[in-house]
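[step 3/7] fold_predict: job queued, chain A
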Amino acid sequence: MSKVVSTAAAVLLTIVLLISACTTSSPGETGTRVSEIAPDFRLQSLEGEMVNLGDLRGKVVLLNFWATWCGPCRDEMGYLEEVHREWTDRGLALLAINVGETIPQVEDFMREFNLTLPVLLDGDMGVARIYNITGYPTTFLIDKNGIIQGKQIGAFPNTESIEVGLKKLIQVTP
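[step 4/7] structure written:
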């Protein structure tokens, strides 16, 4: 009987670890909430430019916190790239914030997936802490006034699911 219990415990532990593979903190923590002003920050881009969130007022901003090792992050990157290409000229600023990784790791990832979207580097995880990121990917949709209008923990299943929120904040002309 003891062998059955230990096997069941091992299986349960494996399932829990798989489910939380991209989780970084305990599930009880709260993050930055919808309807609050998005905390300002300043980060360096992969190209070496400094980007300040406050300078993007007047644009809709999509912030996506991610890591190269995160499977769901890898799954949604193509969708984010498509949104970046289709919506930037309509008033969207998409910022993919890589958390805790080196420039070579991020550059390799960008080449592997043929990505051109803007990446900011949060090497010391300071901005991720300010935004209380509890898992990857986490995405915030911020309106033109700097107010968080949407938050999603976990990957988007397709491009259309990202565009739903954008269409509410950006005037779409047929």
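[step 5/7] annotate
The beta strands are 42-45, 50-52, 60-66, 92-99, 119-122, 138-142, 148-153.
The CA atoms of residues 36 and 147 lie 6 Å apart.
exit 0
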